[in-house]
Every structure is written in structure tokens, then in C-alpha cells.
What we know:
The protein contains nine helices and 14 strands. The chain is α/β, with parallel strands linked by helices. A hairpin with an 8-residue loop joins strand 8 (108-114) and strand 9 (123-127). Helix 5 (184-194) packs antiparallel against helix 6. The longest helix has 15 residues, at 199-213.
Amino acid sequence: MLKVEPIPAFQDNYIWAIHDGHSAAVVDPGEAAPVLRFLAQHGLALGAIVITHHHGDHQGGVADLLEAHPAGPEGAPVPVIGPAGERIGHRTQAVREGDFVTLRHPAATFRVLDVPGHTAGHVAYTADAAGLPGAGPAVFCGDTLFASGCGRLFEGTPAQMLTSLDKLAALPAETKVYCAHEYTRSNVRFAQAVEPDNADLAAWSARVDALRQADIPTVPTTVGQERAVNPFLRSRDAAVRRAVAGQGGDVSNDAAAFGALRGWKDNFR
């Protein structure tokens, strides 16, 4: 059985450790020091490194991790898996949509989705219950989908991000969403500005406040939860469209409405 645990990094990043009590795969290690502490505290060997996109706060720790753990549990070099469309340092396996990633230490299998928008070559890694025994179904989505939000469009278009989020929203409702930042409280504030009458969102807001007051992560959430409260998965909803139009946004088509919603969030204070 596998466990998935957050390793806090920087101010608000989460590096995800997938482990079986003996070895761990780490997702998006932007810095090495917290990962090295986690591995030492839990007596874990480094078995694999998995990267969703090229930003430094997601891959900046790779070199130091490999220096500290040059070989995995069987003595072979630690694999570094990352998107084929981006420059990923020390990558040993380049992946794109439709590929499967099979890890040995710990034993896990992921299916890759292309989810451009935040960056041009961003990918997500999905696993069903069999692929991530004891922890799945799950998706490791980097900075594409957040709890109650989505990533900024640094390299992609609104149409690309909408398509990417549609792929993630189509995953089974019980799929756990392992995103890479603790942005939930600010995302919920924006979501409530968009949908002040959303009862699910009101309940979630109270839950988020309680979790953060207790210094507990708000993630993972689930795909089903995000469908109910995340305005970026609800950009076709009539109430969301009315709110965007009320801000002067173009709602003449799906991509335009999504882009106007994202622009509203970019300037929301």
C-alpha cells in the first residue's frame, strides 16, 4: 500500500512524496533540502523524480537530490521523468499524452495527460486505484489545476487551458487532486466573488478557514469537489457567465469567457 504525503517547500509549495515505507518517488521537487529531510526522517530511499513542468520551483532541487542519492534501491541511477515538450534538467524519460510511466520503487503506474496553459508543455500524471495501490485514484497536476483555482497563463492560451481543465474535470469524481501550491484561501475568496450564492462553496470556505487555522493543508481535494466549487471548471455555468459579463468580460464563446474569468482573477485583490 502506498502513501502520498506533502513536503512543504518555499512559502507555499507542496512537493509530493509517494512512498511504500521503503522508497519514495517525489513529484516536483523545487528544492532538495526539505526532501532530503523527509527521506532521512522516514528512512526512505529515493526511487524516482517526477516533474510536471519546467519552472524552477518544480525542478530546482533535482541536481542536489541526485547528488545526494545517485542510485536508487537496486543500484541503478534514479530515473527523472518529465514532459517531452519542455527543458527538464537530468531527465531520463520524456513523456507526453498517452504514455504510461511505470515506477519500480515504489511500484506505481501513471498515465500522462498533456495539460498546456500554465506552460506550453505542462503534463499531469493520473493513476487509478490499481496504479497507485492504497492511494489512488489520483492526479498530480502541478500548476494547472489548484484547489478552487487554476494556474496563470504564462505560456498558453485560454483555449488551451480550458481544454486542459476539461481533461482533468473528466476524471472520476473521487480522483484526488494533488496540486503544487497552497493557494486555496485566496482562490476561495475569488470563487465567492464569482458565485456568492454557491452553497457548496460557502461550506468549503468554512472548511478551508478551519484547516488553515490548524496549519493543515487544504489539499488534496477531489475532482468532484472541484467541479462543485472551482469557477475555472464552471466557466460554462450560467451564473459564472453572468458574473463575468458583469465585469465587462467577453462571454461570446467558451474560450473568451474562460479568458475573461482568468483575467479577472489575475487582477483580483
